[in-house]
Amino acid sequence: xxxxxxxxxxxxxxxxxxxxxxxxxxxxxxxxxxxxxxxxxxxxxxxxxxxxxxxxxxxxxxxxxxxxxxxxxxxxxxxxxxxxxxxxxxxxxxxxxxxxxxxxxxxxxxxxxxxxxxxxxxxxxxxxxxxxxxxxxxxxxxxxxxxxxxxxxxxxxxxxxxxxxxxxxxxxxxxxxxxxxxxxxxxxxxxxxxxxxxxxxxxxxxxxxxxxxxxxxxxxxxxxxxxxxxxxxxxxxxxxxxxxxxxxxxxxxxxxxxxxxxxxxxxxxxxxxxxxxxxxxxxxxxxxxxxxxxxxxxxxxxxxxxxxxxxxxxxxxxxxxxxxxxxxxxxxxxxxxxxxxxxxxxxxxxxxxxxxxxxxxxxxxxxxxxxxxxxxxxxxxxxxxxxxxxxxxxxxxxxxxxxxxxxxxxxxxxxxxxxxxxxxxxxxxxxxxxxxxxxxxxxxxxxxxxxxxxxxxxxxxxxxxxxxxxxxxxxxxxxxxxxxxxxxxxxxxxxxxxxxxxxxxxxxxxxxxxxxxxxxxxxx
Length: 524
Description:
By secondary structure, the protein is mainly alpha-helical. It has two domains: 13-368, no CATH class; 375-397 and 416-512, no CATH class. It has 22 helices and four strands.
């Protein structure tokens, strides 16, 4: 298939664009509100540095993944290839605000210095992603699909679906009807008059309801203030010259690894949906995008997004990615982001994102062998713990307290808060490990389950998972030798157990003359 035969845009790209645009818009809103309210960063830095830097990263990244999608379509002779979605990572955004920039601001009362250290964190995150691109394909080959998709499904259920479902039912008169239109279009494949995309119909309907019911305050004000990107190498170098940022490597390093693994899972998710992308260039572009963001003023890394199967189910191809990059860059570089927010309520489009979360969760069960469903379910629990801890911390902040001020003893007898925090630390890795162990136990490959248990012991020993400290600035990972000794010992016991069972079964099969493979469940 030649590029001439491959259209730049198809009608369903509009559905994908509205969904991805709303998702990106939410991240930008969070950046503006949290940097203003918590870090007290002047608007000149938010709108003159951070948003233009994010615009460069998002525009270049979306264009790359749109080009990559067209290239795969040309090489495979298919016209149904969907580009990988791309944008600012929500988990990284919260981690950088609450665990890097906010503690620095509280200590120094200098919001600009907090921003500069955030730039260093974003730069190092991108470099970790670049290095990770060289080993990611090996990790992908060694990890069962159930382990990769289960962790993704856990994030989809919690940080995407639950949050957006709460927002929908918080304003049912505005949000429920657009959700119903989304479900009509994407579940029932109902066609709308004039062939209008379901996402567009939902957003138009939600916007009309919001304005008609008085849900939008005042008259939308048209604003325009050109803010071209500015190279911030000087600010970066100033922060790099200080050892201050080294105190936050306990956040920077795991978040870099988190983004590498998260992107890897999204590539596997795309493969399960029918679009196979090469791991190395996909992750390399991912890392370069975060480096570019830091060099031009954004303290927040970009990454391959969750949700490819959902956009593919919508019928989006490559055009939706390019459209998103152009639109997000325009509103960031021209200061018109506030105009968009004043006119279109988020509730009008978040039904699309709820649908994406549903698709990702369903895919984890549908695109893995039927007998691995138990392992997929096992891998969901760490993400549920991470989301539950977020709810606890959010509730405490609403009451004017922090988890540090309340103390872990306040939860004695009512909530195993230590277990929740331990499971939350490095939850994406714990999810993969538990699901992988589950897969190999179901397959009766006990030695491979033992190897994954040993990996969990090593990760616990150096603080990648389970190890934490409760500080006035929040929960931070604890790195070092024997960082989580209880978990090291526990996982080593699992390793010994699985090795012993494997040895027992091997000797039993020798004595009976039958191999272990005959006892494995048959694949569906």
